Structure formats: C-alpha cells, structure tokens
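We treat protein structure as text, and this decision shapes the records that our systems exchange. The tokens are whole numbers drawn from a learned vocabulary of local backbone shapes. Below, we set out a record of this kind in full and without editing:
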Amino acid sequence: MNSNTPESCIRLVNMMFYAHHGVHREEHFVGSKYEVDAEMYCNYSQAARNDDIAETIDYRVVYEKIRHLVTQKKFYLIEAVAHAIAMEFLETFHQLNSVTIKVRKRNPPIGGVCDYAEAVYSTQRT
C-alpha cells in the first residue's frame, strides 16, 4: 500500500452466535456461545465524501457472512473459525487492505473457571 493512501478501520464488535464448534464430541452436540469482532482496514474516503454505501463495506453483508460461517459450518478450533472468516473477507471485499478477526468462546471446557478463550487472526492483502 502506498504510504500516501489513507487507511481507516471499520469495526463490528461483539457479534453473538450460538454454534457447535469444539474439539470434544459433546461440544458439537450441545453447542456454546461465540462472540466475533471484525476489524476491516480499507480506504473509505470516497464513500465518506459521497456518502455512498456502494463505495464501502456493507455491515449487513459482513454480519451475514460471519453468521453463516459461525453457525452453518462446524470447526474443531476457534482458530479455524477466525481464519475462515478472514480468508472469506479478503476474497469478498476488494476494498480491504487487511483484516483482524477475533473469535471468543464463552466458558470453554478447560476444567476450571475462565470467561472465554479467544483466537485472533490478522492478515493482509498481498
């Protein structure tokens, strides 16, 4: 990316889903609560100047893609969920320069008290 090109960030924070991921077989049956944050870095100056959603990333499309990947597919690892979302976004949103996805699993089955486990995956367009 050219150092003179402005870059901004669009964030969707704490999207919540109920899904069936996990290493243990029971997790695939019982399910758990998952939370996802998406940080999408791009230049949305043109969209801001023209006040035009067609020139930026539509939040509804972002949410639907995440919802589909989190609730319709089964993964063993939240790391794999975060990676799948990030790769889908680079494929889909040509405006993106880079993306960071955070996936949290509430009350992970670790044999003790823990609010959540979190996987963070960042990647950029090459």
